[in-house]
Amino acid sequence: MSLKLKRLLDKIYSTLLETYGKQVCFLENENPFELLVATILSAQCTDKKVNAVTPGLFEKYPDAEAFAKADVADVEKRIKVCGFYHAKAKSIIGSAKKIIDDFGGEVPCTMEELTTLPGVGRKTANVVLGNALGVPGLPVDTHVKRIVNLIGIIESEDPEKIESVLCENLAPERWAAFSHLLIAHGRACCIARRPRCAECVISGLCQYGKKEIKK
After folding, report:
1. Which of 97, 98, 123, 145 is catalytic?
2. Residue 2: per-residue pLDDT
């Protein structure tokens, strides 16, 4: 752990929290399984589109048992607007079957177990852990990756390396919240290809922001 980096992350966290307030998961859900499905659907798709699809999807298929018995063509039709619907339907149905067969119908609560589910990587697992299962998890999405590189926290495109550095220097109870705050900031201010550095509340803590403001 780096004391300097820890202090920087604590300052970023407190500043973003003051700016945006407490954030919750952007994917609407009622339980861990619904969040798992929604997160699988969110790959290369907006949360808004996913949130428009899931109410009807969960009305038809309310739990893992229902999805395990689902007709893949019907699921594909219902999730088509989310993109990559063939692969996503296969992952959702496969995950549901494995949850029924191997985990007694309950979404598993460890990274090791979650990542045995079809289509579930560390990011999806961290979303479910940190937002639905009460287990510390820090999802690294495109916003998180971009912003931590711009700030100068790390120079890497590897989500697992980024996750490791952030988790090592943040208190576990802040992991999910820190990810949410960076995502909120990425959508509101630190926008891809056109960051609004002059308006940014953490520009003074950011290597990229300091350079842009000096121009």
Report:
1. 123
2. 85
184: its two tokens: 């909120």
Q: What is the CATH number of the domain that holds 66?
A: 1.10.340.30
User: Mean per-residue pLDDT for 31-56?
Assistant: 97
Sign of CA pseudo-dihedral 92, 93, 99, 104: positive
Domain that holds residue 157: 3-24+139-214
Among 105, 132, 159, residue at a domain's last position: 132
pTM of the model: 0.94
The reply to whether 97 belongs to the active site is: no
Largest CA distance in the chain: 59
Report pLDDT for 212.
Answer: 86
Active site residue 141: yes
Q: Which position among 101, 141, 145, 214 bears the catalytic label?
A: 141
